Structure formats: C-alpha cells, structure tokens
Amino acid sequence: NAGVTQTPKFQVLKTGQSMTLQCAQDMNHEYMSWYRQDPGMGLRLIHYSVGAGITDQGEVPNGYNVSRSTTEDFPLRLLSAAPSQTSVYFCASSYFGSEKLFFGSGTQLSVL
Amino acid sequence: GENVEQHPSTLSVQEGDSAVIKCTYSDSASNYFPWYKQELGKRPQLIIDIRSNVGEKKDQRIAVTLNKTAKHFSLHITETQPEDSAVYFCAAVPRDSSYKLIFGSGTRLLVRP
Question: Any chain B CB within 8 A of the CB of A48?
Fold first, then answer.
C-alpha cells in the first residue's frame, strides 16, 4: 500500500495563477481532508469530505475549492493564487469510525 | 467552534529529563484528544490519544492526561532521548464532528544530548 500520496512535492506559482494539488489514498478510507501548515499556527483544516460526492468547509476554506468524485481522490484547487496561500499543504485520510489521521508527505507551495 | 491553545511553543530539555506540553480546549463537548509528532521534513504521525471517558493513558515513555473540568490535557515524555526532538501537535475533536480535528499551534521540542 502506498498510503496517502500527494503531488507535487514542491510548487512555485505567480499571483493569480491557478493549480490543483493532488491527493490519492489506496486504503479505501471514507474520510479525507486538507490542512495547511504555517509557522506558529499549527495545522488548519481547509476542507474535508466524508465520502464521494460530499464535501464541507473547515476553518480556513476561502480561496480553495475541492471535489470528491471517487473514494480515492480528493484534489484541492486554488483558482487564483495569492501570496497568503504560501504554505505547506497536507492531505489526510481516515476510515469510518476512526479519528486517526494518515497524512500524506505534503506539498510546499510558494506564491510570488 | 472548537479552539485549541498549546504551550509552550518551544521547549528545550536535557537528555534524560522529562518534558511536558499542555493544551486547553474550548468546546466542552469535545471527546477525543490525539497527539501528533512531526519530525523535521516529515509528515505528522499519531503517537498517543485519549478519549473523554479516560483520565490518563500511557505508552512506554509517553503519557497523556486529561482534565475535563478544566478543559485541558497534557503530553508527558519521560527519559527524553535525542530522537524525541520534533514538533508535537495536540488536537481536539468536537463530539458533533467526528472527523474535524482542530489542532493546536505546535510545540518544538529539542532534546540536548
């Protein structure tokens, strides 16, 4: 099992550009989520999904979109990147009935 | 919504000493409190957790205590070793949102050899 796989590992964008961070898991987990990690602010929940076709907002959803068309994939879209979105992004998943999160290896995003 | 505060932000201890990290939460309905360890450049990984119906849980050199009345919980690491150096995050899960882990701001622990 690969677990939770995130791509790319690093990305540099210019202000206003759009991109999609990819996340896939092969553990058949129902729950998937996106966090951003900033110095001194811990991990903040952006969006989450409890199953295919179901998504909801977390603590800091503005500027990000998500969709969940399959159990395996949960992409995060930045429609118009801003410098404030410079961060490390982690995707995480868990199976139904467990709060234990399995994290991906992260994507380091810089917006210039 | 839930809010989790974590202290201290940095902690430096001598190898062999104990380390204590404290967190407070705001939602009295929260019922699950995990701790994650993140080594430099790595992903966070669960190291221990506790539920609201338990006051203390131990796993070898690490333990977590929970005081529901005061709404705070703590991570205790005894006989610290250099490999314990990492960032530690506490989190709380509200009762009505089983999957929405709300994290504290993290504690950077340095164990000096």
Answer: yes
